[in-house]
Amino acid sequence: MKLYITKLILGALFLLSTFISAQNLSKNQFQVKGNCEMCKERIETTAIKAGAKSARYSIDSQTLTLETAGNISPENILKKVAEAGHDNEKFKASTETYEKLPGCCHYERDLQPTITTEKHDNHSKNENEFYVKGNCGSCKARIEKAAKDSGADFAEWDTEKQTVTLKFDPVKTSADKILKKIADVGHDNEKFKSTNAVYKNLPDCCLYDREIPFGEANPKVHFEEGAKHDDDKDAEDHSQHRNSEKNIEQVNILGSKAATSINKKEAGLVFNIDKKELLKAACCNLSESFETNATVDVSFSNAVTGTKQLKMLGLDQKYTSLTRELLPEIRGLASAYGLNFIPGRWIESIQLTKGGSTVTNGYESITGQINTEFLKNAEKPETSLNLFADFNGRAEANITSVSPINEKWSQTFLLHGNGTFGDTDMNDDSFLDRPKGTQLNAAYLLNFNDLEKSGFGSHFGINFIKDERTAGQIGFDKKISQDKQPLYGVGIDISRFQVWNKTGYVFAGKPYQSLGWMNQYTFHQQDSFFGLRNYSGKQQTYYSNLVFESILGNTNHKYKAGASFMYDGYDETYLTNNFKRNEIVPGVFAEYTLTGLKYTLVAGARADFHNLAGTQFTPRLNFKYDFTPQTILRLSAGRGFRTANVFAESQQYFASNRNIQILQNGGDIYGLKPEIAWNYGASLQQEFKLFGRKSTIMADFFRTDFQDQVLVDLDRSPQQLTFYNLDGKSFANSFQTQFDFTPFKNFDVRLAYKYYDVQADYLDGRREVPFMAKHRGFVNLAYSTNKNNNGGFWSFDTTMNVVGKQRLPNNSTNPAEFQLPMYSESYAVLNAQISRNFNKKLRAYLGGENLTSYYQKNAIMDFRNPFGNYFDGGMVYAPIMKANFYVGLDVTF
After folding, report:
1. Burial degree of 761 (CB within 10 A; 0-12, 13-18, 19+)
2. What pLDDT band is residue 229 in, cutting at 50, 70 and 90?
3. Which residue, of 31, 361, 376, 670, has the fewest CB within 10 Å?
C-alpha cells in the first residue's frame, strides 16, 4: 500500500514538473533568410547552441520556429543567427560575415531587419533610431519634414550616422507609418524602400548610393558648415548652407548617377546609357545617340540620301539586334532608315550589350544588342517641350508627357515632328547634302503596375510614323514625274504603324518566380525611287514571346524557359521584279543562371524552326568572374542567324547606276541561304582610384566567324552590285580599350582606342571589307559647374573621333577622273556643345558638329552626269557636310 502511494505521489510530481516546464517554454516563429540545406543546418545549429530547446527552419517559407525556456530570449538567439551570417527580422548580418558564406548560401538581402549586428564609427542604434539614407542638408530637411508630417513629435536625421531619431505618441502614429512616409519622399530606410521614379526625381545632390548596406559610411555625404572634414581641400569642395527653421538648402553637387555605366552584376558586357548621356549631343534620333559613346561607330552611308548607319565590333548594323522595350524594332525593311524613327527626347535609357545577348530575346543577335526604353516612369505629372534648329534649315519639336492616372495606372504621350527645309550643298556639286522633307511621329503608352498586391503588371503601346523625304539635285520637283525633268531626284515615303503589349505576373509568395508574355504587330510600307530606279516594299510582322522564370532550390540557381513566334510577310518590288515571301518561325528556348560567391554563369540555347531556313540551333554562354569587386573578367561565346534583306539593307547603293545581280545558291530567300555566325569575346574591367576618384580601364576583344554570309561585292565592277553566299572564310576581329577617369571634380574624361581586322573571301580572293578603318581613336571631355540655389549650372561637352584609313572599293576600270584611291585618308571629326540649365525646368544649348569641317570632296562620282554609267553616290567614307551649328531649348512644365 505504501509502495502504491509512493508511486502515485512520484507520478503526480512528474506530471506537475512536466506541466510547469511546458508552461516555461515559449514557441515563436521568425523570418530568417536562407537558401539551401547548408543554411538550414547552420541556422538550426546556431539556434540550439544559443539556448533554444528546439529549432526548425523552413527554406520554403523562410521562417525559423523556436522553442525557448523562460530565461532564454529569442532576440539573443536571432542575434547569434545573424552573427552566423543570416539576416532576420530583428538583426542583420555584417557584410563581411555574409560575404564569407558559401556561394550557394548567398540569399537575396531584401529583408530589412530592425537592428544590425554591425557597429560603425563607434556608434550603435537605440530603439528609437532608424537607418535612413541621404546625402546632404536638403535630405535632412526633407526627411525630418516627412517624419513630422506623419505624426512624429521630434525627428532628427544625423548625416554622418545615416540615422533618424524619432519621438512620437504610439497612439497617434507608428514607426512604420513614419518610415513609410520618409520612403515616399525618396529616402530608403531599414523598413521601406523608395520607388525608382521618386528616387530619380530627387535633386542630383540628394542621389545617395542605394547599394551601400545600412550602417556603412556614405562617401557622398555633404557635411554641414563647421563639421569635420578630412582636409582643407575637401572643406572647399562643400558649399555653404542657407538655414531657416524648417529648411536647409544644399547648393553644391558632389556626386550624381553616371550617365554611362557598366552593369557589374551582368555576366555579359552591358553598358547602361542614361538620358543624361543623350543630352551631351544634338541627339535628334537614335542614330545620333552614340556620338559620345566609344563602342558604336556612326557614319554616313550615302551622299545623296544622307542616311547614317551604326557599326559594332567591325560589322554593319544589320548584325546587331536593335530592340525597343525588348521587342524587335529596326530590322527587315526598316533597316535603312529605322534609326530616324526613334527620337532622342523619347528615350529614357539604352542598354548596349557587346557580343551574344540572352537567347530569350531572339536568334538574330550576332555582334550584340541595343535596347531602347521609352519615357514612362513618373510619380507626378511632367510635361516637357524640346525645340531644336540648326543653321542649315533643319528644325524639330518634341513634346513628352508622363503622368500617373492613379496608384496603379500611368500614361505617356510622345509627339515628335521634324522638317528639313533648306537647300544644303556645302561641296557645290549641285546635290543636296541631306534630304528635305518632314516626319510626324506619335506614340501613346499605358502602364499598369500592381505587382506588390495582385502580382500583375502590364505595358501597352501604340506608335504611328509618317516620313517623307526628297533628295537629289537642287531644284528637283518631286511632284513632276522623273522622266519629264532633267534633274536627278530621290523620293522616299514611309508609313509605319506598331502596337504592342507586355504583361507579367509575379507568383504570390514567390518573388523569384514570374511569367511574362510579349506581343507586337508592325506594319511598314516604303515607296521610293532613285532616279529612274523604283523600289517599294511592304512588311507585316507579328512577334510573340512567352517567358517563365523561377529557381532550382534557391536563388543561386535560376532558369528561364519559354517559346516564341515570329511571322514576317514581305512584298518587295525592284524595277519590274516582284519578290514575295513569308517567314514563319516558331521557337523554344531555355536559359540557366548559376551564381556563386565570385562568379556568374549564364548558359542558354534555343531552337527555331524556320520554314525557309530550316531548323536552327542557337547556343549562347556568358561567364563573369570577380577577382575582386574592382577586377572583373568576362567571357562569352554564342551563335546567331538571320535572313538577309538584300534590297532594303543596301539602299545606300541605289543612288548610283550599278546594276544589281544575285548569284543564287539554292536558298529560299532571294535564292540565298541564311547568314550564320559565331561570336567569341573576352573583357577585363579594372577599377582604381586616380586623383582620389574612381577610374575605370576596360579592355575587350571579340571575334566573329561567319559560317555562312551574304556578301555584298562592290569590287567586281563599278557598274555592278553583286550578292552571293560566302564560299570560304569571313571574320571580324575587334579590340577596344577604354579609360574613364575624373581628374578633378565635375570633369569627366573618356579615352578609347579601337582596332578592327575585318576580312572575307570574295569570289576573286580574300580582301578587307571596304569602308572599315583598322584604327580609331576617341576622346570625350565633359565638365559641369556646381549648381546654384535654383538648381542652375553650365555644362560643356566635346567629342573627337579619329578615323584611320579605309579600303575603298575597286573602280580601276573607270576613267581616271572617276577613280578612287585604294585607301582613303585619315581624318578627325570634332563635336562640341555648351548648355545652360537655368533651373530644373529650363535648359538652353548651343552646339556644333564636325567643327574641323573635314568633308569628302568626291562624295558623288560623276555628279555632272547622274544618268551616266559612272554616277555613284554610295562611295562614302567620311562626312559629307562641313561644320554645322545648332541651338535648342528644353522646357519642363
Report:
1. middle
2. very low
3. 31
Give the residue from 459, 440, 439 showing the smallest Cα distance to 448.
459
Q: What is the mean pLDDT of residues 140-152?
A: 91
β partners of residue 773: none
Separation CA 546–CA 392 (nearest Å): 48
Q: How far apart are CA 843 and CA 761, in angstroms?
A: 52
DSSP 335: T
For 728, the grid coordinates are 570560304
The CA–CA distances, whole Å, from 420 to 309, 388, 426, 433 equal: 19, 12, 15, 11
CA trace torsion 707, 648, 765, 672 (10° rounding): 50
Bridge pairing between strands 368-374 and 347-354? antiparallel
Q: What is the mean pLDDT of the chain?
A: 88
CA distance 159 to 545: 47
Question: What's 296's DSSP letter?
Answer: S
Phi-psi group of 437: left, alpha or beta (phi > 0 → left; psi -120 to 50 → alpha; rest → beta) = left
Alpha carbons 574 and 105: distance in angstroms, whole number: 61
Question: Is residue 138's pLDDT more than 90?
Answer: no
Highest mean predicted confidence (pLDDT) among 9-13, 140-144, 196-200, 792-796: 792-796
What φ, ψ does residue 134 adopt, rounded to 5°? -175, 175
DSSP string, 436-451: EEEEEEEEEEEEEEET
| Mean pLDDT, residues 588-594 | 97
Average pLDDT over residues 465-472: 96
Q: In what order do the strands lie in the sheet with 25-31?
A: 25-31, 63-69, 54-58
Q: Measure the CA–CA gap between 632 and 144, rounded to whole angstroms.
A: 40
Residue 170 has a pLDDT of 82
Closest among 300, 299, 296 to 351, alpha carbons compared:
296
Q: How many CA atoms lie within 13 A of 352 on its CB side?
A: 20
What would the mean pLDDT of 240-252 be, rounded to a whole number?
30
Of 818, 828, 822, which Cα lies nearest the Cα of 779?
Answer: 828
The predicted model gives 405-417 an average pLDDT of 94
**DSSP helix/strand/coil, 658:** coil
Over range 256-265, report the average pLDDT.
Answer: 74
How many beta carbons lie within 10 A of that of residue 597, not counting itself? 14
Strand segments (E) across 479-598 = 489-506, 514-530, 533-552, 554-574, 577-595
Instruction: Enumerate the β-bridge partners of residue 537.
Output: 526, 572
List helix spans (H) across 323-364: none
Distance of CA 809 to CAs 644, 770, 819, Å?
21, 6, 10
CA distances from 739 to 346, 366, 690 (A): 29, 26, 11
Task: State the pLDDT at residue 90.
Answer: 85
Burial 294-313 (b: 16+ CB within 10 A, else e): bbbbbbbbbbbbbbbbbbbb
Could you write out the DSSP letters of every residue in 176-229?
Answer: HHHHHHHHHTT--BSS----HHHHHTS-GGG---TTSPTTS--TT--PPTTS--
Phi, psi of 63 (to 5 degrees): -130, 150
Among residues of the chain, what percentage have pLDDT more than 70? 91
pLDDT of residue 1 exceeding 70:
no
Other beta carbons less than 10 A from residue 583's beta carbon: 18
Is residue 448 very low, low, confident or very high in pLDDT (cuts 50, 70, 90)?
very high
Mean pLDDT of 447-472: 94
> What predicted TM-score, i.e. pTM, was given to this entire model?
0.74
CA dist 262 and 505 (Å) reads: 29
Read out DSSP for 48-113?
Answer: HHTT-SEEEEETTTTEEEEEEETTS-HHHHHHHHHHTT--BSSEE--HHHHHHS-GGG--------
